[in-house]
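Morning F.,

Quick status update on the modeling queue. The single chain you submitted on Monday has been processed. Sequence for confirmation:
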Amino acid sequence: MTIKTLSDAITIIEFLISKQGKSIEASIEEAGIPLHLKDQVLKYFAPPLEISAPDLIIDKSRQIPLCNPGTDSMQQYFGALRQYLIEVKGRSKSIVETLTETSLDLVKRLPKPYATDEFQSRGLVVGHIQSGKTAMMAALIARAADEGYKLFIVFGGAWKDLRSQTQRRLDQEITGESENSADGPFIICDPDISTWSRLTQSGLEGDFAPGT
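Structure tokens below.
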């Protein structure tokens, strides 16, 4: 197997660790990981951070059919986000896996978008600054898009700079588009799936305007 990308390297290293019980160092040597990828592989497989699983408060009184995500091949928007976090942002395995598992737990609490004529479902994310709230929001949006949700409205705060900052982050991780290339690098989604239509822009004056 020719190892060209970080994803290729991670795939073969995970196989050697899980199936053959090899250490990370031995796996890197046996797989012949290119020198320019070794540091990224070591960072990805670094000891996990102490991230506690979130507590979920669930309303069990509802009887609306809930989302039931399929296989990885059906998770096109979230799959692109996961690859972006690994390949471009260099996030560690523990962070990516926590985001993957927690966003899956959350999307399973969402009603199927076509299950009924109308429904209301509310959730709340609480966390410290730089604790991963926006990352979780992006992951949930991506997973919901995979489930068939079509419109996402994000209230980015009362201040223009905060709203613009949030837009830039979601453009990087969700839409893959921006009027300013300096905001990148951006996620690259499969060209065969529906592209995002952005109703706002990332500049300070890019919020909703009359006639949008």
